Amino acid sequence: MKIIADPREMQAWSDAARRSGETIAFVPTMGFLHEGHLTLMREGRKHATRLASSLFVNPTQFGPNEDFSRYPRNFDGDCAMMRTVPVDVLFAPEPDVMFPAGSQTWVEATEVTRGLCGDHRPGHFRGVTTVVAKLFNIVKPHCALFGEKDFQQLRAIERMVTDLNLDLTIIPVPIVREPDGLAMSSRNAYLKPDERRRALALSRALRAAGAIFTTGARDPRDLQRAALAVLNDTPGVEIEYVEAVDAVTLQPLATLDRPVVVAIAVRIGATRLIDNAVFSFSTGGSEVRDESRVG
Ligand code: AMP
Question: Cα separation of 104 and 254, whole Å?
Answer without folding.
Answer: 39
